[in-house]
Write a structure and sequence with these properties.
The longest helix has 18 residues. By secondary structure, the protein is α/β, with parallel strands linked by helices. It is globular, with a radius of gyration of 23 Å. The chain has a domain of about 160 residues: 3-Layer(aba) Sandwich (Rossmann fold). The chain is built from 7 helices and 14 strands. The strands form 3 sheets. The chain has a 6-stranded antiparallel sheet.
């Protein structure tokens, strides 16, 4: 290089670039690392679910955050803790579905731990903590009590489970609920149920993905169109805002078979990724709304619509 007419300060910059090229590489974005589980959902059966980090965009409002990590939940990142959470006020006709649920538990990957709990008197009464012994977990499935009022609110129970579920760091935390979704503490008729909202926020704070299979309660609850309409609407909102899926059959009647819904839940586990993005630093910790986008036309990125962000130091 001819440096005869190059200013001395420029020579210093050139020398620095030659000695330390990393200084002039793309600098890491300033932000708080936040982790969340994302399900890649194909539009049609057979569509590719291969997604790279460059395909993923994360937004806080109009601001785009940097994606630091996008890793398939496979191999040494496949850890899953799954709770089957059953409403104890469900009809005893649940008995015909017990073999289907037990089979689903037995089919989980060896790296997955499965727990069983029942919604009872406003809490999640744990029958079996998450265990890799799937046969042991399956044995914890029993008939619901089938008594109206045995569960104060399915959302009380979900919040209780979220708060007492120890965080393991590297394992996905997911819940499959079996319930009619009706909340007698608040009532029905709108989407403003504070207990539903609290359960959603508790799941978002804990990084729990909640899915739900609608199953009618006992007596009048099992055939009231009005009650079951709103129960299923609540479950749909819960799943949508935590990144899960809601399964139902309309508004009344019994599901003929859980198998297709459980199979779909299993496929979702197989198409999940760990996302780490860099959230905007703020002095106050809390939940923040996020949106995920992609320019790929054959898939959707399904996740919670809010995530807990720690305070900046």
């Amino acid at each position: 290089m001819n440096t005869k007419h190059v200013p001395p300060i420029a020579i210093l910059w050139i020398a620095a670039a030659l000695l330390c090229p990393a200084v002039f590489a793309q600098q890491p974005a300033n932000g708080i690392p936040v982790h969340m589980v994302v399900t890649v959902e194909p539009h049609h059966e057979g569509d590719s679910t291969a997604v790279t980090r460059d395909d993923v965009m994360v937004f806080e409002g109009k601001d785009r955050d940097a994606v630091a990590e996008w890793v398939p939940a496979q191999g040494d990142r496949a850890g899953l803790e799954l709770y089957i959470l059953i409403d104890d006020s469900s009809g005893t006709s649940f008995g015909v579905h017990m073999p289907e649920v037990k089979k689903f538990i037995s089919e989980q990957a060896a790296s997955s731990k499965v727990g069983v709990a029942y919604m009872q008197n406003g809490i999640a009464r744990i029958e079996q903590n998450p265990t890799a012994d799937h046969e042991l977990a399956a044995k914890a499935i029993r008939l619901p009590l089938g008594v109206v009022g045995a569960n104060a609110s399915p959302y009380f129970a979900l919040s209780d489970l979220a708060k007492k579920w120890p965080q393991t760091g590297r394992d996905r935390h997911e819940v499959v609920m079996v319930t009619d979704g009706i909340d007698f503490y608040y009532g029905i008729g709108d989407m403003l149920d504070p207990y539903l909202s609290a359960a959603i926020e508790d799941c978002q704070r804990a990084g729990i993905v909640a899915s739900a299979i609608y199953f009618p309660g006992s007596g009048h609850l099992g055939h009231s169109y009005w009650l079951n309409y709103w129960g299923q609407m609540y479950l749909a909102r819960l799943a949508e805002e935590t990144g899960g899926e809601s399964y139902g059959i309309g508004f009344t009647g019994n599901l003929p078979d859980f198998t297709p819904y459980l199979a779909d839940a299993g496929r979702r586990f197989d198409h999940q990724y760990w996302l780490t993005f860099l959230a905007k630093p703020e002095k106050k910790a809390g939940l923040r709304p996020v949106k995920l986008r992609t320019e790929l036309h054959n898939i959707d990125l399904v996740s919670a619509n809010a995530v807990y962000v720690p305070a900046s130091e």
